[in-house]
Amino acid sequence: MLDALRNAMTSAVAALGARPGGEITLFHHNDTDGLCSGAILLQALTRAGFKVKRICLEKPYPGVLEKVFRAEGRIYVFADFAGRIAPQLVALNRNRNLVLVLDHHAADAVGDPEQHGVYNLDPELYGLKGDRDISASVTCYLFARLLNAASEDLAGLAVLGAVGDRFFERGRLVGINSRVAKEAASSGLLKIATDANEERYLLTTHDGVSCRELSVYLDTLGAVGYYRGGPDLGLQVCLEGRTEAADRENEKLSRLRTEHFRRETDCLEREGIRRSNHIQWFDLQRRFDPMGVKMVGIFCDHLKSRHFIREDQYIAGFQALPEEVPGIGRIGGGQVKVSMRVPEPLSQLIRKGKALGLYDLLPPATEVLGGFSDACHSLSAATTISAGREEELIAAMEEILAAGAQ
Question: Is the residue at 215 inside a domain?
């Protein structure tokens, strides 16, 4: 599994090596895992002699991709998304650019990259589980090590990204995530504090702060502050540590998130959440503006422990997409994002194979409506559809669940 992934990465490194000193456009996600992935690749690619233009995205929306792939002779790197849409990248690219995908979500294979220029380096294609064994940041770290041995010093960031995605077993990182954590600890970049219930990961490179604490900080900058420069501050924190400016902005954004979450939770408690047979859902419309649309998923997580949430139903939330993407420009409107999460009792059933995971539920229903799917796991997933079709999506998912129960 890991050897096969490394072999594929080695081929991609060779393809990069054939374009020394070129300019790379690096697209990365805006949560902790995505920010750490972006920071790791920015450092490694810069050290390798490339000029890197970095663009943080909430998702690689079709409108974004259509603009990007008008170019020719470029190098594009996608981090923490795009594994599932690699076939679309092949179709858009038409072998005109070199494209690398370093993701950890469920993915689709694309065959020989020498035929189309797209290297899909998603560990899910090599037998690893992106929601258990390996994060995007650890995937990027493995690639960075192959690109430049000096990138060993980025292992702590890889662990921070893995902790940010919160895919633990019995309170501990497992798989390749755990292996890299031990490497970072042996190099003095990380301390691992162990007790009977969990492991705590402390970054010595960032004044000994816990990765859990710093991941909340980075999620706030990257997600709440997506439309006001938060990801740039977050990436700076990854590489240089916290600053007074970042602390002030984090405090403002934390208050903004708390206010929006409290108001919306009170509304749901007062007016009730909408329900179908297996799904409980709500529609934020634009009430979370000016926060980024990743916040609808974080709000779903926030709701999981509320008393009015049923533990045997999936949670879905809708949030309207803006028409402007930082670093890209206008991509058109009329779209909504749907994010889904799973209460803990239902998640245990999914892990045991006794209930349908979100990857097998939300993307197929989205495709029925002609929507866009990427970066989905079994316990967390998000897609986009046309505005006004929210109830149709719920009905499509109910049909899938009813068919699976037969």
Answer: no
